[in-house]
Structure formats: C-alpha cells, structure tokens
Design brief:
By secondary structure, the protein is α/β, with parallel strands linked by helices. 45% of the residues lie in helices and 22% in strands. It is built from eight helices and ten strands. Helix 5 packs parallel to helix 6 and helix 6 runs parallel beside helix 7. The longest helix has 35 residues.
Length: 299
C-alpha cells in the first residue's frame, strides 16, 4: 500500500485543527453561552404574518379596522418578530496580535473567542460573516448560515497568513458600514492599539449594534524586574532597550498602560458602544457571560 502523500497528511492536520476548534466552541456555547446570547441578541422589526379574528385578551391596538369594517366583526393583524440576524465577527490580525506572555497569544485568544461567537450565531440560525483585518481588510466572508459555513469561518481564522502590519480600525469600520445597510450585530475583536478611529467607529455604531472586545496581555500593563530587556514594536519593528530594575521605568510603563486603558474606556463611552475586556491570562467565557448578563439586565 502506498504511503500517504504530504498533501494528504497536511489536509488531515488542517481538518483535525478545525475539528478541535469546532468541538471546543460547541461545548462552550451549548453549556455556557447560548442562552445568554439568545437573551441579548434579538431580531429587529416585525414581519406581518396574518389577519385573524379577534379573541378575548388580544391587544385592541392590533385591530385592523379596514378588515373589521368589511367583515362586521373585529379582526387583528398578527406579527412575528424578525428573528434572523446578520452577525459580523471582525478579527484584528495585525502584528501586535502575535504578542502573548501567558498560556496563549492575543491571536490565540481572538481565534477562540471568534469561534465561540460564530458557533453561537450559527446555532441561533443567524447569518454569520467574518472579516479579518490589519492595516486593510485581508479577508471577507459574506454572511451565510449552516455548519459548512461555520467550518469555513474556523478554517480562515486558523490559517490566515500573519503579516507584519499595523491596526487600522477606521478602515474596517468604514468597510462594514459600506457593505451592509441592514442593522447587524458587530463583534469587533482587537487590542485597539490604534488611533484616529473614533469617528468611523462611532458611525458604525450608529447603524449597527457594535460590541468592542478588547484583547489584553498582562505584560502590556506591567514589566517584570528582570534587568535590561529589548522591547520590539511588532507592527513597526522599532526596538528599544529598557532597564526594568529601575522602579521609575516600571512605573512609567504601568502609568502609560493605565492611561491607554482609561482613554479607550472613555472613547467607547463617547461612542455609546458596549465593551468587554479579555486577557490572555484569564478564562474568557466567564467574562463574556458577565457581559451578556449585565446587558440583558440593562435591556
């Protein structure tokens, strides 16, 4: 019997990885997240279903007076909620997403979160779309339903080629604003290490239900005391050396991180966006569930 070809082995490995991510997302969605997702994200608007004869207890505001006049007996219009949503999952694949000092990188965290949200959307019969972006939109998967579509999305999440590129949140915000007019749910998954995006993102949030999912790593907010180290900006390649034994250096680094976070929170508030913070050193499902529960109570 002939030995399996290299292409066959590679294909088997690809399928194994896709299947692993799908199983993990399915288990987490079914056991922990799906009920919260359904309670928070509902369709917008009502579709006319039928006219039927009035029954005691019906809302009199639903009476169709034209039909009632013709039939000489009260009739009401019955509507059903438009259930199907368009769900866009936007994932930042810029070079800063490679960073990670805990059990995973920000990219790994983004893949897990995106796959979980994608599975919840598909299980809820929503139309799922994927947008991968860095300094430009790298890949766009139009909205569809079904398991085959979910597997396509997971494959693209796993195997999109990394690029040394910056983050351009303004560009992806304008892209999504231009490709869909129907009100949609937009999950924007990024570390938000960017500037000048507030105006386009605000306009996106005015038309759609945008949830900003911020990816963090503990080393972005605090430096360990380990002597002189080189810090490289993954998106520009710029390298600087700092002495982490110096308390003033560590405090300046932490203060800059606190300032970035505070400004990001204020920015989301000005844009009236819902937001959730995730970190590579903490489980992400409890944070998502807390966010969904808080939003459901607020609604």
């Amino acid at each position: 019997m002939a030995a399996p070809s290299h292409e066959t082995a590679v294909s088997a490995e690809v399928l194994r990885k896709i299947r692993q991510v799908e199983i993990k997302a399915r288990v987490l969605a079914d056991e922990l997240l799906l009920g919260s997702y359904r309670s928070v994200f509902r369709g917008w608007g009502l579709d006319f279903e039928e006219v039927r004869e009035y029954e005691p207890g019906d809302d009199i505001r639903s009476i169709d007076w034209n039909v009632t006049a013709r039939m000489s007996t009260p009739y009401i219009k019955k509507f059903r909620e438009e259930r199907e949503l368009n769900v866009f999952v936007l994932v930042d694949t810029s070079a800063s997403s490679w960073f990670g000092t805990a059990a995973q990188s920000k990219r790994d965290l983004a893949i897990d979160v995106a796959a979980l949200l994608a599975f919840a959307a598909i299980r809820n019969n929503d139309r799922l779309s994927l947008v991968l972006f860095s300094d430009r939109v790298q890949r766009y998967v139009p909205p569809r339903t079904g398991r085959d579509h979910l597997l396509r999305v997971i494959r693209d999440l796993l195997f999109e080629r990394p690029r040394r590129a910056k983050t351009d949140l303004a560009a992806v915000s304008r892209f999504v604003s231009n490709i869909t007019k129907k009100r949609s749910v937009v999950f924007l998954i990024s570390d938000f290490l960017d500037t000048g995006y507030e105006s386009p993102l605000r306009r996106l949030g005015q038309k759609h239900d945008v949830v900003a999912v911020t990816l963090n790593d503990p080393r972005e907010s605090a430096l360990p005391r380990i002597g002189v180290i080189g810090l490289e900006d993954a998106e520009t390649g710029r390298l600087v050396y700092v002495d982490t034994d110096a308390a003033a250096v560590r405090e300046a680094y932490a203060a800059a991180a606190r300032l970035r976070r505070a400004e990001r929170i204020r920015s989301f508030g000005r844009m009236n966006l819902d937001a959730v913070d995730l970190s590579t050193d903490r489980p992400y499902v409890p944070a998502l569930m807390t966010f969904f529960s808080a939003r459901a109570r607020r609604a």
